[in-house]
Automatic annotation (TrEMBL):
<feature type="binding site">
    <location>
        <position position="65"/>
    </location>
    <ligand>
        <name>a divalent metal cation 1</name>
    </ligand>
</feature>
<dbReference type="InterPro" id="IPR002678">
    <property type="entry name" value="DUF34/NIF3"/>
</dbReference>
<dbReference type="GO" id="GO:0046872">
    <property type="term" value="F:metal ion binding"/>
</dbReference>
<comment type="subunit">
    <text>Homohexamer.</text>
</comment>
<comment type="similarity">
    <text>Belongs to the GTP cyclohydrolase I type 2/NIF3 family.</text>
</comment>
<feature type="binding site">
    <location>
        <position position="331"/>
    </location>
    <ligand>
        <name>a divalent metal cation 1</name>
    </ligand>
</feature>
<keyword id="KW-0479">Metal-binding</keyword>
<dbReference type="InterPro" id="IPR017221">
    <property type="entry name" value="DUF34/NIF3_bac"/>
</dbReference>
<feature type="binding site">
    <location>
        <position position="64"/>
    </location>
    <ligand>
        <name>a divalent metal cation 2</name>
    </ligand>
</feature>
<protein>
    <recommendedName>
        <fullName>GTP cyclohydrolase 1 type 2 homolog</fullName>
    </recommendedName>
</protein>
<dbReference type="InterPro" id="IPR015867">
    <property type="entry name" value="N-reg_PII/ATP_PRibTrfase_C"/>
</dbReference>
<feature type="binding site">
    <location>
        <position position="327"/>
    </location>
    <ligand>
        <name>a divalent metal cation 1</name>
    </ligand>
</feature>
<dbReference type="Pfam" id="PF01784">
    <property type="entry name" value="DUF34_NIF3"/>
</dbReference>
<dbReference type="InterPro" id="IPR036069">
    <property type="entry name" value="DUF34/NIF3_sf"/>
</dbReference>
<dbReference type="GO" id="GO:0005737">
    <property type="term" value="C:cytoplasm"/>
</dbReference>
<feature type="binding site">
    <location>
        <position position="103"/>
    </location>
    <ligand>
        <name>a divalent metal cation 1</name>
    </ligand>
</feature>
Length: 364
């Protein structure tokens, strides 16, 4: 199996187009055509992780955090980033990162944390906009079902828990086939009028190529008229953070102690207890302070995340309890998530979870 095939399975789950603009979720080092031996899965890619891959015979490292965020102007080993990249290149090891796109998808990083915390009725906390498109096309009546079904199979027409969603309205189209054309209906040189249906379907931007290909292959006309509109609707299955509910509310301090065990963290930094019991919980793996207002608006009792600065803790204003569990600690189970994705898609491909603790922070 080639490295590009491994990547294709990961990106089918978390399309790169869902990543933040600053991010670098991609194949950072390596030839996508190279045959993959085994994969090592890590939260971070460091020199020690590359050494581990060499020892295990892995020529692919899949990490959550990209080793390269910004462009490198030189490769001479002056930083751990350059040394890591150089060592990977020297040993013919490919480096792939799957970061904020994995954070944003349904079933991604935050859902994994929610699973460990036992949260139910989980929803995206801050849905993203600009990720939906509307396809409008015009189809002769006799071909409408074939075209619709083809579009549905390509991923169009899914809204929340509903699929096969479409709207059609009747009208009349006209055209004149010129010399060299091969019209399905009508004659060369004569204006033809045809009863058509205006068909509208919504699709994810990640599926655009598949949807257009499905349209062109199923539509009976030689030249297919269609429009693609950018929608600003929020995509309620893609976005930052999640909010969910505990099956049974528990005392806040008891919940904080439970977090420490479930997330295997040495330290939980928390603000004043805002409510006696915890029922609704907001979660954001990694740096989540930017979602505090969203967590408050969602009526969360506790917000589990990391990397809050001193003055940001005041912003809770006793409206909820912030539980800062640490960046590494909040995302350490991402390795398990990546392994699960790959095992489900390619169970016979060998994957290893890195045993290197890449957390740069120590606790006394």
């Amino acid at each position: 199996m080639k490295i590009k095939e491994i990547i294709a399975h990961l990106e089918a789950f978390a399309p790169p187009i869902y990543q933040e603009g600053y991010d670098n979720s991609t194949l950072i080092v390596g030839d996508p055509e190279m045959k993959a031996t085994e994969a090592l899965i890590a939260l971070d890619c460091t020199e020690e992780v590359v050494d581990e891959a060499i020892k295990l015979g892995c020529n692919l490292i899949v990490a959550h955090h990209p080793i390269v965020f910004k462009g490198l102007k030189s490769l001479n080993g002056k930083s751990y980033i350059e040394r890591t990249v150089m060592k990977a290149i020297k040993n013919d090891i490919a480096l792939y990162a799957i970061h904020t796109n994995l954070d944003h998808v349904s079933g991604g990083v935050n859902f994994k944390i929610a699973e460990r915390l036992g949260l139910k009725n989980v929803k995206v906390l801050a849905p993203k906009s600009g990720l939906l498109r509307k396809l409008i096309t015009f189809v002769p009546k006799a071909a409408i079902e074939e075209v619709k079904n083809s579009l549905f199979e390509a991923g169009a027409g899914t809204i929340g828990n509903y699929d096969s969603c479409a709207f059609s309205s009747e009208g009349e189209g006209s055209y004149r086939a010129m010399e060299g054309a091969n019209p399905t209906l009508g004659e060369i040189g004569k204006v033809h009028h045809e009863k058509e249906l205006r068909l509208e379907v919504i699709f994810n931007v990640a599926d655009e190529n598949k949807v257009i290909s499905a349209l062109l292959s199923s539509h009976p006309y030689e030249e297919v008229a269609y429009d693609i509109l950018l929608l600003q609707n929020k995509h309620h299955e893609i976005g930052s953070g999640i909010v969910g509910e505990l099956e049974t509310p528990i005392a806040t301090m008891e919940f904080l102690k439970k977090i420490k065990i479930l997330l295997n963290t040495e330290c939980v930094r928390y603000t004043n207890v805002a409510s006696e019991k915890v029922h609704r919980v907001a979660v954001c793996g990694g740096s989540g302070s930017f979602l505090l207002k969203k967590a408050i608006s969602a009526a969360a009792d506790v917000f589990v995340t990391a990397d809050f600065k001193y003055h940001e803790f005041f912003d809770a204003e006793n409206k909820l309890t912030i539980a800062d569990v640490g960046h590494y600690e909040s995302e350490q189970f991402t390795k398990d998530l990546i392994k699960e994705i790959l095992q489900k898609k390619i169970p016979n491909f060998a994957t290893h979870l890195s045993q290197v603790i890449t957390n740069p922070i120590n606790y006394l």
